[in-house]
Amino acid sequence: MSRTVYNFLLDVFLFLVLVSLLFASIVLRFVFPVPATATGWKLWGLGHETWTNLQFALITLLVLAVLLHVMLHWSWVCSIWVTKLRRHPERNTKPNEGTQTLWGVTLLIAVFAILGLLVGIAQLTIESPNV
Fold first, then answer.
1. CA pair distance 109, 112, nearest whole angstrom
2. Rg (CA), the chain
3. Where in the sequence is the domain holding 51, given as residue range(s)?
4. Is 97 a member of any domain?
5. What is the pTM of this model?
6. Interval 77-103: pLDDT, tens
7. Which ranges of the chain does DSSP label H, i.e. alpha helix?
8. Does any domain span residue 68?
9. Is 91 helix (H, G, I), strand (E, B) or coil?
10. Has residue 74 got a pLDDT over 90?
């Protein structure tokens, strides 16, 4: 299978996951009642919690597919960065593949570290209701 066909199939998959996520979100927002009163309500045999789990699974799939998409186009991203966004003409040479990989992994680690930090802060600062 050619790289073009592989990219096309990935793009189709991304589109289908995005549309599915949009549908699940609309169902949760506009079809089900508010979560506090949604216990026992079902749509096509699935309750509110199952729809919420489906929504999270679709978000996860979308993020992983977008990550794969960016990885497949990383050389292009680095080329754009070097030729269009950096303002130093003496540095207009494209970084080698090892440097590109290092930058990609560093960026990924930074994103996940920030996400982890934000989740940790949220966990430490959440307030329970006064019952």
1. 5
2. 21
3. 3-72
4. no
5. 0.73
6. 777 766 665 565 555 566 677 777 777
7. 3-26, 48-72, 74-80, 97-125
8. yes
9. helix
10. no
Evaluate whether residue 113 is within a structural domain. Answer: no
Token pair recorded at residue 88 = 């130093």
- How many whole angstroms from its chain centre is CA 121? 21
Residue of higher predicted confidence among 84 and 39: 39
| Rounded-to-integer distance, Cα 117 and Cα 61, Å | 22
Contact in structure between 38 and 32 (CB atoms under 8 Å): yes
Residue 36 lies in a domain: yes
Domain count, the chain: 1
In the 8-state DSSP scheme, what is residue 43? Answer: E
Measured in Å, how far apart are the chain's first and last C-alpha atoms? 60
- Cβ-based neighbour number of residue 43 at 10 Å: 13
DSSP 45-76: TEEHHHHHHHHHHHHHHHHHHHHHHHHHTHHH
